[in-house]
Amino acid sequence: MKITFSLQAVTIGSFMFLWLTTCLAQAQNRVTILVDAFSKVATLKQDWGFAALIEYQGKRILFDTGNNSDTFAHNAKALGVDLTRLDFVVISHRHGDHTDGLRHLLKVNPGVKIYVPNDEYFGGPTPMGFFRRKEPSLPTHMRYFNGDVPLQVSHGSPWPQENMSRIDSSTMVMPGITIVRNIAQVRLFGETPELSLAIQTPRGQFLVVGCSHPGIEQILGSIAAKQNSVYLLLGGLHLVQTPQPELDRLVKALRDEWNVATIAPGHCTGEGGFLTLQQSFGARYQYAGLGTRIDLP
Ligand SMILES: [Zn+2]
Ligand SMILES: [Zn+2]
């Protein structure tokens, strides 16, 4: 009887130890790169685009979903990432290399909450002024909405609207976790709103960016990075086609003016961007290829 009890106690003790270590492992603050086009891990599928899982103080946040639903599913499985357990998702912007994995995600986690920019692509309104030119001399049947255009015309969207929470301005969604909104005024992309994620850590802000179409300096300005320093900047900086003199200026500005402590560039930062940043940041450059896990403070 005594022996049985001891064995039970040992068994229960082992289970509790396992449970505790599992909980501690789960509570680890870290980021995992799920989609990108460079990697040290041969078993993962490289693809253009970006997706990362952020685990912070017990919260699990998916940032972007990559370029291809199957690739996203493969990498998430290979990295042991359970997509059914997410607190919320942030989609940085409308481009397909950040959104296609939503098709897989919504299959495995149909109720998941998804923050998106308030953009036509996600079911947002048609920009004001689109119907500005009016021609009252036309017969009614040739005029939009018979000449009486509604104040707001919403676009359709490939994504279920019940999951989508459209963000119009920077919003703190949980204590210390802010979804940052900027707008790109880029010729090729027009007005493209883009979301980034800023998490306040004890060592400064952790900033995750998708493509940085609005410009990384605009995004850093919007989180007051000169006053509240950035401990780690991670993601796409959109410097693939940036000429070297501008790359040199920007990289120096990130290091010396914007006080970015460590940098983990990925996606559309470009090979020239990787090289220039690595030369400039030295030991403060953090490799962030597909499959990389980076611990957070
Ligand atoms: Zn993009
Ligand atoms: Zn992109």
Question: How would you sum up this structure, described in words?
Answer:
With 297 residues, this protein is α/β, with parallel strands linked by helices. The protein has a single domain (28-122, 158-295), classed as Ribonuclease Z/Hydroxyacylglutathione hydrolase-like (Metallo-beta-lactamase, Chain A), CATH 3.60.15.10. Helix content is 26%, strand content 26%. The protein is built from 7 helices and 13 strands. The protein has helices at residues 2-26, 69-78, 96-99, 102-108, 216-222, 244-257, 271-281; strands spanning 30-35, 51-56, 59-63, 88-90, 114-117, 164-167, 171-174, 177-186, 190-201, 204-209, 230-236, 260-266, 293-295. Strands 6-5-4-3-2-1-13 form a 7-stranded mixed sheet. A 6-stranded mixed sheet has the order 7-8-9-10-11-12. Helix 6 (244-257) packs across helix 7 (271-281). The longest helix has 25 residues, at 2-26. The protein is globular, with a radius of gyration of 23 Å. One zinc ion binds next to loops.
Q: What's the number of structural domains?
A: 1
Order of helices and strands: HEEEHEHHEEEEEEHEHEHE
Major sheet: arrangement of strands = 6-5-4-3-2-1-13
Indicate the percent of residues in helices.
Answer: 25-40%
- Count the DSSP helices: 7
Shape: globular
Radius of gyration: 23 Å
> What are the low-pLDDT stretches, counting only 5+ consecutive residues below 50?
1-5, 20-25
Q: Can you identify the CATH superfamily?
A: Ribonuclease Z/Hydroxyacylglutathione hydrolase-like
Tally of extended strands? Answer: 13
Mean pLDDT: 91
In what range is the share of β-strand residues? 25-35%
Q: Alpha-carbon distance between the termini?
A: 48 Å
Give the distinct bound molecules.
Answer: zinc ion
CATH architecture: 4-Layer Sandwich
Profile the largest sheet: 7 strands, mixed
Briefly note the structural class of the backbone. Answer: alpha/beta
